[in-house]
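Please check this today:
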Amino acid sequence: MLFSLWNRREQMPEDGMPVDRQEAPVSRARIGLALGGGVARGWAHIGILRTLLKADIVPDMIAGTSIGALVGGAWAAGKLDILEDWSRTITRRRLLGLLDVTIRGSGLIGGTRLHALMQENFGELAIEELDTRFAAIATELGTGHEIWLTQGNLADAIRASYALPGIFGPVQIGGRWLVDGALVNPIPVSAARALGARVVIAVNLNADMFGRGTVIQAHAAEAAQEAEATAAAPVPAEPEPSRIGRLFRLQHNIRHDVLGAVRGPGITSVMVDAFNITQDRIARSRLAGDPPDILISPKLGGLGLFEFHRADEAIRLGAEAAERALTDIQETVAALS
C-alpha cells in the first residue's frame, strides 16, 4: 500500500496512539510540526526548524502540505542542509531553467526536472524508513478526499503534495490522481495530532498577507466608471496565434511571472494567488475547528509567491518568528509533559 487514507474514526484508537506505530511513552510531550503551504514563502520553514532544533525542541512527527512537505520531508530524511544550501543559490534565471514548460498534459509545468532533482537527493527512500513520523498531505481529484501519504516513496509523496492545480500536473500514486494538499488541509494540524503529537506547533505562511482579508461592501464607483471608459476604447484586433505561437506566449507569460517583468498579474500569478486566497480561507476554518497549541506566523507579506530567489530573507524571517514563539513553546511542552 503506497499511501494511507484515514478518516476521523480511523485516526486514533482508544489508547490515543496511531495504530501503525505505537511506542512507549517518553519523558516529555511528543512534539508535532504542522508545516503549511505557501509557495516560495515556504523557505521560512527552514529558519523555523533551525531555531527550534537549536533550542532543543526536536519534533517527533511532521505533517506537511505543499512546500511544507518538501521542507519537512527533507529534515526527516537528514537532507535539510542540502535543501538549504540549494535554496540559497537559486536565482531567477536558475529557477526558470527548472521549469519545463509544456503545452500538453494537465499543467503548465511538467515538473520532471524538479522531481529528478528530488530523486537525486532522496533516491528510493521510503517514508516508513524515516526515523521521524512523516505525512505529506495531498488531495485526490474527482473525490476531493484528503490523502495522508505516510508510506511509499518520499519524493513521489512530496511531488504529489505540491502539485498545484493548473501549474503542475497531478501525480498518480496507488491508483489515485493527487494534487496539492492545500486544497483540503493547508496547515495539517489534524494529521500531526493523529500521528501521535501531544503538542502541535503549526506554521501559517500566509497570515501576514491574507490574514486581514475582509469584505468591501461598496467599491469606488469612480474607479468602475474609469474602467468602463477604458474598456470602451477601441482595441486593435490581434491575429489568432499558431500552435507554436501559443507555446511561445505561454513561455513568455511564465518567464515574466517568474522574473517579475510584467505590468499586470500574469496567468501563473493569477492562478497561484487565487489558490492561496482559497487556501487562506480554508486554513482559517480548519484552525478554528482544530487549533494548534502554538501557531507561528512569520511576517512574509513582502515576499512574492514566486520569489524563490529570496531564500535568505525568508529563512531569516522564519527564524525570527520562531524565536518569538520559543518561550510559549517551552512552557507548553513543560505543561503538557
About this structure: The CA atoms of residues 56 and 330 lie 10 Å apart. Confidence is low (pLDDT under 50) at residues 1-25. The beta strands are 31-35, 61-65, 107-109, 133-140, 146-149, 166-168, 171-173, 176-180, 199-203, 294-296.
